[in-house]
Amino acid sequence: MRLCFVLFVACLGIALAKPQEAKYTTKYDNVDLDEIIKSDRLMKNYVNCLLEKGNCTPDGAELKKHLPDALHTDCSKCSETQKNGSKKIMRHLIDNKPDWWKQLEDKYDKEGTYKKKYREELSKEGIQLQ
Ligand SMILES: *[C@@H]1O[C@H](CO)[C@@H](O)[C@H](O)[C@H]1NC(C)=O
């Protein structure tokens, strides 16, 4: 009888804890991406943060923390703003900063698996992964 109760409580705990982990924080969704894209200096800061070559702003640190998971899970925990934002940044980097993009690919997609996985989907969005 007691075991039953313990199991029930454990299961309930897991069930309740899950939804909170289902999405990344939207705390930084109001960051002005156009401002960052316009400024090479700001953009470089984020890139260096992701490459572990420089300091991270709080939102940069958050991005770095979740990027591998987001790539792995098809950005399924991303808010729509985050998805849109990722595409915008990717487009900018691929078109205008191919060397920074390459370095990010080398770090986060060494085997080229994600490139393969996302190539088709992103080409529909006008993002051409080489
Ligand atoms: C994201 O992009 C889609 C397609 O361009 C658009 O319909 C949607 O309103 C955007 N959402 C946000 C939150 O920016």
Automatic annotation (TrEMBL):
Organism superkingdom: Eukaryota
Pfam family, one: OS-D
InterPro entries linked to this entry: A10/PebIII (IPR005055), OS_D_A10/PebIII_sf (IPR036682)
Residues making up the signal peptide according to the UniProt record: 1-17
Keywords: Signal
Stored PANTHER family: CHEMOSENSORY PROTEIN-RELATED (PTHR11257), EJACULATORY BULB-SPECIFIC PROTEIN 3-RELATED (PTHR11257:SF12)
Protein name (database record): Chemosensory protein
Name of the gene: CSP1
